[in-house]
Amino acid sequence: xxxxxMNDLVANYYGLKFVSAAESSPHIKVLIHPTSxxxxxxxxxxxxxxxxxxxxxxxxIVQHLPHFSAxxxxxxxxxxxxxxxxxxxxxxxxxxxxxxxHFPPNPNLPSQEQSIYLPPDDKVNPQxxxxxxxxxxxxxxxxxxxxxxxxxxxxxxxxxxxxxYDYSVPSFQIVGYNFYQQGRMMADYEDHYNATYELKRYxxxxxxxxxxxxxxxxxxxxxxxxxxxxxxxxxxxYLYIYELLNNIGVASPTEGYMKLMAFRDQCAPSYHSRxxxxxxxxLCDYVLYYGLDQQKAQTVFAKTIATDKDYHILLxxxxxxxxxxxxxxxxxxxxxxxxxxxxxxxxxxxxxxxxVWQQILALKQTNQFDYFAExxxxxxxxxxxxxxxxxxxxxxxxxxxxxxxxSEHIYKLEPQTCSSMLYYPIKRQExxxxxxxxxxxxxxxxxxxxxxPLKPRQLSSLLQRAIMDGIKAYQRIxxxxxRPIVDINLANLDQIRRDASQTxxxxxxxxxxxxxxxxxxxxxxSQDQVDKSAGSDQSLLNADETTLVIALxxxxxxxxxxxxxxxxxxxxxxxxxxxxxxxxxxxxxEFNADNQPxxxxxxxxxxxQLFLS
Length: 613
Known about the structure:
Blueprint (H helix, E strand, L loop, with lengths): L2 H12 L4 E2 L7 E5 L6 E6 L2 E8 L4 H5 L4 E2 L9 E5 L5 H14 L36 H9 L8 H8 L7 H15 L25 H15 L8 H12 L7 H14 L6 H18 L3 H7 L1 H14 L6 H11 L7 H5 L1 H20 L5 H6 E9 L16 E5 L2 E5 L3 E9 L3 H20 L12 H22 L10 H15 L2 H4 L13 H8 L8 H12 L4 H6 L4 H11 L1 H4 L4 E3 L5 E3 L4 H8 L2
Antiparallel strand pairs: 1-2, 2-3, 3-4, 4-6, 5-6, 7-10, 8-9, 9-10, 11-12
């Protein structure tokens, strides 16, 4: 907890507020006990992380509990100190409840009890003996009944509910326990009271209401259940919500969920906006605590899931399209709304931005800069009590131990609290993203000579280099895409060979077709090389294929030989690569940028051993 949360708790739940202690430093703040009019909590504005609380005779026990210690602002041994950062709202409420209940009365204030005269011992009538008067457990209950005794026609169920209040319950459970038990008694009760009494109270429960207010509430609730909603006191609305959170008046948590959703959407807008915000938070806790299905979780955690998805896309851009990544940047930055390059070339800008963003994320891999954690969002552990700021009785532990909302959001469920790792956005996120995207825009214009030059903004040289690396990577990809792609269907390779052979035969002259006629050699490939090629390992390549391999290995011209033999270089290279695949295991000849065949250097030595040795 922090200082503000503690102030809200004591104001909303107890109706108290911290005041300055007149007899001490002006920085010391205290809470004044409502009846004894003396401080029962001490804190310092200079050190709001710690407070001292009166615990009376239980000080010895409480002081040795986790997070508790000796008092810091007083030397009185009936007080204990505690760190606000180490405890939650529920634990602090328990301590304050005990302190309020057991704080000693102020002897300087007149007693509110009736005075009883006790005569001296020498005048005591021996017929009577002094005895301790035992107050009944329901003493306060009798006072309440006397307060309402003048109200005529109190319905029996209401009278029975009032009488059922159990004062023997420990102070830290007394409010929630009695609210739940009384609520179950009145779950199906209907009333038709013809008067209306307002209720203005924080954390309203049945025990705080008069007979008139109880009858007003139950009449309003009866009409609401029948589909006739009317705006009533805000406190009645919260009382109804508390019932649903505790599953009072519903057959199952699923029914309770549906009624809470209906009240949030149809009735809450008639009250203050904080009610809708609280209902959104409580509905999330409701799904977790009662272990409802994923469909309901997707509904109540919609905002969280949307944020988690954005962060997931930013962290894993390779798994998503450039358009999806661009949409996330538009959500978290305002710069792109006026970006001219994006308006003119949205597809190209999105592709470039994705590559640049991947370069920026890669800085984390080299331990240079984690842009996401420093600028976008940091992931931190968090924990809270279910249904904070509501009246709730923890009668059982949650149904599940773990609840996964999405890939980034997993809750660990404890009996009264839940914990998770959450992404908290960095406050300067939008400003920093705007600066980054401005520099991307500026450097892209400069690199591609587009539009009017922009003035540079302050951005680290590390990030500017990452942006330029991304731009260069994009340019290389564009150059690769502009190269012509030759699509050869290897399934039809045999047919291509046959067609080439027929074409060659049709081009031969009669003299060339005569057996024994040899083509004239006008190029440096000698007849001895051709003969040697013909006598090479026939299990690998034929004479033409071997001749080309030897010519490429020796750097000799081969064009005239293929012309004289009516051979196509692309087909011959494919035949060689296919036949040597089993021997070498890879392509041995490839075409360079000038579309000329060359030996793959990694396999030159292997080919020399096969064809030149």
